[in-house]
Amino acid sequence: MTIHRDDLLREYLRVAPLSRALIRSKEIELILRKRPDGRIIDLGHGDGHFAAILARHGVRLFVGMDISLEELRRARGRTATHLVVGDMQRAPFRGGVFDGAISNCVLEHVERIDATFREAHRMMKPGGRFIATVVADGYEILLFWPRFFGRIGLRPAAKAYLTYIERRFVHQRYIPASEWIAEAEKAGLQCTHKEPYIGERRQMLMDLFLPGVVVARMMRALTGREVLPVPRWPVSLISGWLDDHGALEKGANAFLVLEKSAGGGAEITPGGNS
User: Fold this and answer.
1) For residues 160 and 193, what is the distance between their CA atoms, to the nearest angstrom?
2) What distance separates the 2 farthest-apart alpha carbons in the chain?
3) What's the pTM?
C-alpha cells in the first residue's frame, strides 16, 4: 500500500491543530510502514484519533489501554478497539496474550521505563514486536522558541520556556535512542530497527504553532472539537518545506522496533495478573 505523506497530514489536520498534526501524521506514516497485525495492544491510547486513522489505513488495534479514563471516554466509538483503563507499568493482562504492541510518544512520560518494557515483553507472544515512538535527546535542541529567545538575548526566557515544556508535557527524560534501546534490552527485547525522525524544520514549525494547542483545548471544552473545518490547508506547501524527506542523522524523536525473541527470552517477573 502506497503511503502519501500529504494525505496523512491532511487527514490529521481534520481532528488536531497543526502543531500536533505535524508530528502525529509522521508517526502514522512510520507505523504503517511496519504494518503491525494480529492482537495488538496500544499502550497509552489517548483520545482515539491516532487509532482511528491507523484503522482507516488497515492497521486495527485490538486493545487500547490508557491510565486516563477521561481520554478513553473521548476515544469511545471512534474505532472497534477494546478500551481498558490500566497502567502500562503494571498492566491488567496475563502473559503472552498479544501478538505485538505499540506506544506512540508515551514512554517519555512514564516514571519507570524499566517496568514498562518488562510488561511489554511479558504480555507479548514470542516473536512479538513492540513498536514505539519516543522523545529523544534532540527534542529540546530543535525547538523554535528557545532558539529565538536565545538569539535576541533573552536567555532567561529560553530557559523558562524549556521548563514550561517539560512540566506541561510531563517529560521524564530526554535520552538518545541508544539509551532507550539499552533499557529495552534489559527487559529481554532486541532492537531490530531504529530511526530518528522529526527533523529541524518540522520540530521548529511544531513549536512555533504550539500556542495554538491552548486554543484547541478551549475549543474542545466548548464544542467537543479541537479544530474548525478548514476548506483547504496548503498541505503540499507545508510538506515541501519540511526537511524529513531523506534520512536524518539526528532527530527530535526516535522510532524503535523492539522484538521478543521467538524463544521467549529470559522469564520476566509478571507485573500484572497472571
Assistant:
1) 35
2) 57
3) 0.90
Give residue for cell 509522521.
Answer: 26
Contacts for 151 with CB less than 8 Å, ≥ 6 apart: none
Which residue in 32, 31, 27 sits closest to 9, CA to CA? 27
Q: Find the mean pLDDT for residues 57-67.
A: 97
The amino acid at 262: A
**Which single residue is written with the C-alpha cell 524549556?**
162
Cα–Cα distance, 110 to 171 (Å, whole number) = 8
Q: For residue 264, what is its C-alpha cell?
A: 521467549
pLDDT digit string (tens) for 177-235? Answer: 999 999 999 999 999 999 999 999 999 999 999 987 777 777 777 777 777 666 678 89
Helix/strand/coil (H, E, C) string of the chain?
CCCCHHHHHHHHHCCCCHHHHHHHHHHHHHHHHHCCCCCEEEECCCCCHHHHHHHHCCCCCCEEEECCHHHHHHHCCCCCCEEEECECCECCCCCCCEEEEEEECCHHHCCCHHHHHHHHHHHEEEEEEEEEEEECCCCCCCCHHHHHHHHCCCHHHHHHHHHHHHHHCCCCCCCCHHHHHHHHHHCCEEEEEEEEECCHHHHHHHHHCCCHHHHHHHHHHHHCCCCCCCCCCCHHHHHHHCCCCCCCCCCCEEEEEEEECCCCCCCCCCCCCC
Cα separation values, 61 from 39, 95, 99, 192, Å: 7, 18, 11, 21
Q: Say if CB 102 and CB 40 are below 8 A apart.
A: yes
Whole-number average pLDDT of the chain: 90
Residues 6+ apart with CB under 8 A from 134: 105, 107, 108, 177, 180, 253, 254, 256
